[in-house]
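Contributing new records

If you add data, match the layout below exactly. Sequence lines come first and carry their own label; structure lines follow with theirs. Keep one chain per record. Anything else will be rejected by the validation script.
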Amino acid sequence: MDTRIKLKVLGLTYSQVQKGAYALVLAEENGPRRIPVVIGVSEAQSIAISLEGIVPPRPITHDLFVSFSHGFGIRLREVCIYKFENGVFSSEMLFDDGTREIRIDARTSDAIAIALRTRSDIYVMQNIIDEAGFVYEENEGKEVVETEELPEEKSLSNCSRKELKERLEKAIASEAYEEAARIQDELNKRDNNL
C-alpha cells in the first residue's frame, strides 16, 4: 500500500490562479512541504468559520452534515487526498458506525471543512505531495519578500522550466502561496501537455 502523509490546515489565502477563489494551504504535520488547494468562496468561508471557532447563529451546510451524521451514530474517521489530476485534488472520507466502514468520494474542500469540525485526521498520498507539494524552508534571519516583489521580467508562459522552479522556490520561501500556486499551475499545464 502507498505511504500516506498526515496533514494539518495552515490557513487560507486569496487565489491569484483563479479569480474569485481561495487557496487552502495544507502542510505536512512533521515536515516542510505545503500543498495549496484552490477552493471556492463558500467552502473557504466554511473553513474559515471552523478555523476561527465561530459558531454561526444557524448551522451552515457542513455543520448540518456533521450534526446529521452524529445523530445517526456515524463518525468521520479520516479524510485522504488520494488523487491529483489536471490540477484537481480528489479526496475520500472514511466513515464508520461501529459495525462497518464506508468510503465516500468528496471534493477536497468539503471533506476538509467537515474534518475540521469533527477533528478528524487528514492525509495525502505520498505520490501526490511529491508531485504537487512545495518544500518550505524557514527564513532564518532572511528578509521576507512579498509576492509583488518577486521578479516579473517574464510572464510565466515565457519562463523555462528551470526558471519556473527557481521562482517557485522564492515564492515558497517568502510564503507567497498564491504566487506559488500560479507557478505550480503553469508547471502542471506543461506536464499535462507532454
